[in-house]
Amino acid sequence: MSLDDFEEALADKPSDERWELIGGRVVRMMVGARWEHARIVNNLSRHVGNALDAAGSSCQVFTETFYLKSRPLEAAMLPDVMVVCGSLEPGATSASDPAVLVEVMSVGSEARDRYEKWHVYRQLPSLRHYVLVTRDRPLVEVFDRAGEVWTNRELEGLDAALDLPAIGVSLPLRDIYARVFG
Q1: Which of 10, 87, 136, 169 has the greatest CB tally within 10 Å of its CB?
Q2: What is the pTM of this model?
Q3: For the domain bounded by 31-66+77-176, which CATH number is listed?
Q4: What single string gives the DSSP state of each residue in 53-119?
Q5: For the Putative restriction endonuclease domain, which residue ranges apply (predicted)?
Q6: Of 172, 95, 87, 85, the residue nearest 129 (C-alpha)
Q7: What gap in Å lies between CA 107 and CA 128, rounded to an integer?
């Protein structure tokens, strides 16, 4: 399905349903999540947002209801956490140029986050970091772009730190998983 057709179809969906367009394929998303998922998303949003504000950054943090849209990639997705740098148009409901995308993975969402979404996300020219956060244990996988080359690293344990140099933020996993583990 094209992004235009998706947006038209979305207008007819009930407000309590969430839908994504992943590379031209329409996917109904889960509504509601385990408390651990919500806590991790909240922790990430709060700590990253506070760090960006303290640094006087132009970057902003958005969560789960703010769309990432790309017409060339036929995509309209709702990342768990998205960092966008620069200004947005007044009234915008989406962005097309994220610097950082984060998905908090459950058993049910891991394949989609790790493969389907990653296939689309890595084609976004602005994206510098894609972060996969495991919900059920302190484990984070990070894909970093340097030029056109992607590398990945794995962080495990509450004493590890998530460094996101593209936005100048470093965050201990202890903060990401606060009140979930430890």
Answers
A1: 169
A2: 0.94
A3: 3.90.1570.10
A4: HHTT-SEEEEETTSEEEETTTTEEE--SEEEEES---TT--EES-EEEEEEEE-TTTHHIIIIIIHH
A5: 4-172
A6: 85
A7: 25
Structure-token pair, residue 99: 């610097």
104-to-2, 25, 57, 138, 170 alpha-carbon distances in Å: 27, 21, 24, 11, 18
pLDDT value, residue 33: 79
Q: Which amino acid is at 119?
A: H
Residue 109 contacts residue 103 (beta carbons within 8 Å):
yes
What is the residue whose two structure tokens read 């956490």?
A: 81
Domain boundaries, the chain: 31-66+77-176
Q: Which residue has the tokens 């140029």?
A: 97
